[in-house]
Specification:
Distance between the termini: 46 Å
Number of strands: 8
Strand content: 35-45%
Strand order of the largest sheet: 1-6
Shape: extended
Structural class: alpha+beta
Largest sheet: 2 strands, antiparallel
Radius of gyration: 18 Å
Order of helices and strands: HEEEEEEEEH
Oligomer: single chain
Length: 105
């Protein structure tokens, strides 16, 4: 009975858009890459929005729903676990997207 109520509450929040759907999460996004069908970069699209912070207007990253991934963290001295990571291929830091990091090796 309690599990049924929790499931119904989760589904209600999901349908109202108050929580992200499974496999998705919220991230601050500053830029997007426009790619050709061949994978070539066509444009760098700014996604920052102007927002007031006190009396000053600033360009801040937009909060967007993006795919997320999890990685299995194995620890030899303790418990292994799943850790939430940024969204790998489709949404990641610029260093990682451009192949300058070691997180996918």
């Amino acid at each position: 009975m309690i599990l049924h109520a929790l499931t119904r509450h989760y589904e209600d929040l999901l349908s109202l858009g108050r929580i992200p759907r499974p496999g998705w999460g919220t991230a601050k996004v500053s830029y997007a890459l426009d790619l050709s069908l061949e994978g070539e970069i066509l444009a760098l699209l700014p996604l920052k929005t102007e927002q007031l912070r006190g009396k000053k207007a600033e360009l801040l990253p937009r909060k967007m729903e993006v795919p997320i991934c999890y990685e299995w963290i194995f620890r030899s001295y303790g418990r292994s676990f799943w850790k939430k990571r940024s969204a790998c291929t489709f949404c990641n830091g610029s260093i990682c997207i451009m192949g300058k990091c070691s997180c996918h090796s």
